[in-house]
Design goal:
This protein is of the alpha+beta class. It is built from 18 helices and 14 strands. InterPro entries: DUF2252. This is DUF2252 domain-containing protein.
């Protein structure tokens, strides 16, 4: 092996071959074999996988979680990352390790502002992040495209075009990153116009206006206008449904809880940021219910106000538990799962929230981030009109994220230039989209038979 063919693996620090390493990985995980999905390899029912997560979630919210997942195969897929993780682990994988998003479905990509206030396009959800094989993220992304296209009644042709665009753009972008230096990869950014490329000018302009409008509404001031009320001279958060942080607590418990919250968070951020955080005081705190897969996790929203009186800031603390992939890939190197999440986020994103931090309160791990702060999260209906273009942008963003932590030359060597890799990924995605529909039906049957309790409201 020549010295030119040897590189240092960015994620583990070990020395590995580059493109030739990827070609050798095909022996243990042939690219066309990646298309095989065999449900007989499951060690337990999908429903039992879901129920195994109940122990780490708030039992009050479990009926709401199941109700949201039962709404459609699309909402089921969003809540069933644990099921898909177990299913991915039933077959050989490439062994080419990256920092996985872990839940790279198509609506877990979106826009948010860098610290310089530039809107960037990137992966946005990292609750399940963990080092693992690159193709697992790509399989979840393409599966989600087929499921979402069916939910939006877009037809098989649109689904095929979008899924193909995601895989091909991922492969092309990874090939580009394989030819770049480390800093060039690290500094690369995907701007907000990328998901709109290839559209007619009229459609692109309308979409750009929507993005600009949403970005203005989702600033801290815009969020305050939507969520803050004033009563008796005191501001408080208005959400439905919600619980106040101090509900049912004595004064001593409230003081202890607040002190524990801030002290543990402050130790996780850089000293220069502590100076900034100390300029804000907490005005109000409420418990939130968010998403589909996150229902049952403990999530707190805090309204902070700066000493100037002119700068409201919303800080969100979200419970973090073990990644669903740890059972199959080994435990995280981090003892606090909040830290696991924010380190994974910083590895994958070109620019991250400056307030990211972690804590452990009352035995639960949390990560902390700004709430909204120009974050634009698309809906299926919003991207239905340009799904292939949006899917291509997601493939590009995923490749960028993987190239930051993995070996793009090795991944490119594994993918190759022929159609084998694309065919394998798309075949798997079609089969697993069908499996998702079957699993969704199983959940609905369990609800009908009262094996699982579902409710539309909480609190």
């Amino acid at each position: 092996m020549t010295s030119e063919s040897v590189v240092r693996d960015r994620s583990s620090g070990t020395v590995t071959a580059d493109a030739s390493d990827g070609r050798r990985a095909r022996r243990q995980a042939p690219r066309r074999a990646a298309g095989i999905w065999d449900p007989s390899r499951r060690q337990m029912r999908a429903l039992d996988r879901l129920r195994a997560q109940e122990a780490v979630r708030d039992p009050e919210l479990l009926p709401l979680r199941y109700a949201r997942m039962a709404a459609s195969p699309w909402t089921y897929l969003r809540g069933a990352a644990a099921v898909m993780a177990a299913d991915l682990a039933t077959a050989p994988h490439s062994g080419l390790t990256v920092q996985m998003c872990g839940d790279a479905h198509i609506l877990n990509f979106g826009l948010w502002a860098s610290p310089e206030r530039q809107l960037l396009f990137d992966a946005r959800d990292f609750d399940e992040t963990l080092p693992g094989p690159f193709e697992w993220d790509l399989k979840r992304l393409t599966t989600s495209i087929y499921v979402l296209a069916a939910a939006e009644h877009l037809g098989n042709r649109c689904a095929e075009d979008a899924a193909t665009a995601a895989v091909e753009t991922y492969s092309q972008a990874m090939r580009k990153y394989a030819g770049l230096g480390e800093l060039d990869i690290w500094y690369d950014r995907i701007t907000s116009d990328v998901p709109l490329r290839g559209l007619t000018s009229e459609f692109a302009e309308a979409a750009a206006r929507t993005v600009e409008k949403q970005a203005r509404k989702r600033t801290h001031h815009g969020t305050a206008r939507q969520l803050v009320s004033e009563e008796g001279g005191r501001r408080h958060i208005s959400l439905d449904p919600m619980k106040r942080l101090d509900e049912g607590m004595t004064l001593d418990q409230r003081v202890q809880g607040y002190e524990e919250f801030y002290d543990t968070y402050l130790t996780s951020i850089s000293p220069h940021l502590r100076r900034l955080v100390h300029r804000f005081r907490r005005v109000d705190s409420v418990r939130q219910i968010i998403g589909v897969g996150s229902v049952g996790m403990r999530v707190w929203l805090h309204l902070l106000e700066g000493d100037s009186g002119r700068q409201p800031v919303f800080s969100q603390a979200k419970q973090a538990t073990a990644s669903v992939y740890e059972e199959f890939l080994g435990p995280s190197e981090f003892t606090n799962h909040g830290e696991r999440v924010i380190v994974g986020q910083r590895l994958m994103q070109s620019a991250s929230d400056i307030f990211l931090g972690h804590m452990r309160v009352h035995g639960h791990d949390y990560y902390v981030r700004q709430f909204r702060d120009m974050k634009i999260i698309p809906s299926g209906q919003q991207i239905a009109g340009y799904l292939p273009q949006f899917a291509a942008a997601c493939g590009h963003a995923l490749a960028k994220s993987h190239a930051r932590s993995g070996d793009p030359a090795a991944i490119t060597g594994y993918i190759g230039r022929g159609p084998a890799f694309r065919h394998g990924i798309l075949q798997y995605a079609r089969a697993y989209a069908a499996q998702t529909r079957t699993d969704h039906t199983e959940l609905r049957t369990a609800i009908t038979s009262n094996e699982v309790r579902a409710a539309e409201r909480a609190w």
